[in-house]
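Dock 9WO; give full complex structure.
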Amino acid sequence: MLRFDVITIFPDFFREAFDYGITRRALAAGLVVTKTHNLRHWATDKHRSIDDRPFGGGDGMVLKPDPIFTAVNDLTGFSRRGDYPKETRVVLLSPQGQVFTQSLAADMATTASQIVLICGRYEGVDERVAETLATDEISIGDYVLSGGEPAAVVVADAVVRLLPGALGSKTSAAYESFSNGLLDYPQYTRPPELEGLRVPDVLLKGNHAEIARWRHEEALKKTERNRPDLLKDSRG
Ligand code: 9WO
């Protein structure tokens, strides 16, 4: 059983996201539980503030570290990255993180029993969270969002579908994008002709060896066109 604890100032953002699709089925199957927590619950001053002005000056506000440290301590029992049991991950979602990959998702799905997802907001998060509290600082890609929440949904979805017993885990390893270093081959279904657009003949003929060769070639072409970086990576 994997437990996700999400720390956010917008808990409502997650209600529907976790109530659909794979996370709903995994919840029903008892593979996962997701709990969202309002960061403001751990604010201590009389205004329940969770942000403050940056030391050194600059525009905007920064999320204060103390409510986040207290939240993680309440949820895990610890507040130093060296102290958690190895099955606990504390993840800060931020544009400054390591890029999230399928292999990181697979590592989390096979080793974690608790994943705390910390969603930043405003112009940043006090660096002591990334430095000392979090086990991982993760970016889902090279773009800036208005907060970590959409990225937390992405990470949870990618991990949950790999849990043994979740739909998706059966078809995973050998067949999907990225596990062989290539994008998926093109797929077609009926009708065989649509407004003059025909399904490739090789797929209609049913020669399985030819189909396998065609799919591999098409996967290579598509990867060359859309993601040449993946081919460079696999050549080292
Ligand atoms: C906003 C901003 C505005 C003016 C000047 C500097 C600024 N920096 C930021 C900023 O980085 N805000 C972040 C918003 C603070 C941390 C949470 N936020 C966030 C997470 N945006 N994008 C992500 C994210 C997370 C994971 N993967 C990709 C993006």
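Observed: The chain has a mean pLDDT of 94.
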